[in-house]
Amino acid sequence: MSLRFAVIPSGKSLAACVAAGLFLSVTAQVAQAKNKSAPVPAVQASKFNLADLVKNSSAADWRALNLENTLYLELPKGRVVIELAPDFAPNHAQNIKALVREGYFDGLAIVRSQENYVAQWADPDEKREVKTAKRKLDAEFTVKYAANLPFTRLPDIDGYAPQVGHANSFPAGRDPKAGTAWLAHCYASVGVARGTESNSGDGTSLYVVTGHAPRQLDRNITVVGRVVQGMELLTTLPRGTGPLGFYEKPEERTPIKAIKVAADVPVSERSKLEIIRTDTATFKSIVDAQRNRGGEWYKVPAGHIDLCNVPLPIRVQK
Amino acid sequence: MSLRFAVIPSGKSLAACVAAGLFLSVTAQVAQAKNKSAPVPAVQASKFNLADLVKNSSAADWRALNLENTLYLELPKGRVVIELAPDFAPNHAQNIKALVREGYFDGLAIVRSQENYVAQWADPDEKREVKTAKRKLDAEFTVKYAANLPFTRLPDIDGYAPQVGHANSFPAGRDPKAGTAWLAHCYASVGVARGTESNSGDGTSLYVVTGHAPRQLDRNITVVGRVVQGMELLTTLPRGTGPLGFYEKPEERTPIKAIKVAADVPVSERSKLEIIRTDTATFKSIVDAQRNRGGEWYKVPAGHIDLCNVPLPIRVQK
Prior knowledge:
Two copies of one chain form a homodimer. The longest helix of chain A is centred in the first third of the chain and has 13 residues, at 90-102. Chain A has two domains: 3-56 and 280-316, no CATH class; 67-269, Cyclophilin, CATH 2.40.100. Helices cover 18% and strands 23% of the residues of chain A. Chain A has seven helices and 17 strands. Chain A has 318 residues and is of the alpha+beta class. In chain A, a hairpin with a 2-residue loop joins strand 2 (70-75) and strand 3. At the A-B interface, helix 1, helix 2, helix 3, strand 5 and helix 6 of A face helix 1, helix 2, helix 3, strand 5 and helix 6 of B. Chains A, B: Residues 76-261 form the PPIase cyclophilin-type domain. Chains A, B: Pfam families: Pro_isomerase (PF00160). Chains A, B: Keywords: Isomerase, Rotamase, Signal. Chains A, B: It is an enzyme of class 5 (isomerase).
């Protein structure tokens, strides 16, 4: 397949690919992109090339996922890797880990898949008992914006938050005036489903954003983390045909084999992933490159980047 | 399934559902949402309820899809309905219709599905000949911002365009200073794949945005329209495992049974759809309701709406 058909843009596509589902490690993607037989157009000017920036990064530009805060959602077709963000939802992260370690989720199911919105799992029969975890937690919609909370601000304007940026590789918003910070609802964000009451979510039902960022949910629901690998296992699920994308028949649901804390999984079975650090000069260069895409393909650089379009590359640990 | 598990939010979910894939007509969705046995929480205050606004709309709040500018992409699992936007890409719309009427696309395939980015179709073998359509067209990245170009501006800020709004039910950007307007890359936008040269896209390969809006593509590629129904047929396709989400093996591709212009299809086989008009008081109310969600579930109204989160309901013609 020749260039003419193959392309929207190259650097951009690779970027989106890196930012997104991550079928491959960044390294593998870069290797593939350099394969001359692949339908990838000319390499962009190095200064504006995400792949080169990633390739030329140093070990200090990456951090390993914290095993104690990483969950493996094991589905019939593979593993979804979730990183929890205890800086923003300490009590919910702890409760979800307690649920995981009780085996609460094992054998439950994905009960909902709504187009351009969320996939959600829960106990479809609502019969499973909770042993050690709590059934009532105060909401963690925002946290206090403290000096020790990491936050690398983007200069870009945002309609949903006075300031946006990244906190330890999570997309986040901040309101200095109100003294609050929160995780943003981007594609791949993981949140705690709740009913009408703020404190009605306990982590027994979680959802993942599978479409365009529903940022109106920010500060209305507790975000606990982010899918860093395996999004395609959730986004390609058949959509539920019931209201709100719930499956109407039990057999339409996708069973959850298990959810595990990475630290509890034998070393040989772990996904050994690193994520880009967001408090480095390299990350700033990556964002700059995405904000003003160069190379031959782009005719008009955007001069702006949306928080939820910032790539957060992962790679297999070296 | 009870409320506690069922919900992220209700009005919002319904809104997203309406805005998104549209398994059901709005009417059917509203009917389902009112079914007491469905896992849908209490109805929101009428003033802030998308479903009620849609239900209470008048015939003048809707327009039928223009049959001459509507394409049916027929896939093995169903029909994707695309509305072309000749106001913004007159030459490309015309050329694509010429290709359609030649039968150019019939029997071709979806060759690419990249996570959180695009699905794209083309002639995988690049052997099909073009008969009456053109193989070279000037780019239509922007159009002249003329007084007669419809544009209902949103008051919301946007990082990618000085002004955003809707032009005849299409999300669009505008730059009064430069005197230009363009269709925005939102989820469901349809664009003309091209190579490095601006004029290298002729419509023989088209893509649909399947993830978070890649607005950096705005003004860099010709957007010709928008999928108004059937997005789930594209977003749930298995992702290609080659670079940029291209399928590596021919058998992984999804065959295109045919693409037809709606006007050429027998009346009985047409999808009789109406889309919300974007130049009405009703539409303004819908956007207001989405910008500041009320009801019992929302604790903090966003006070802002992203162009690509504005719902554009469709319904079956009455």
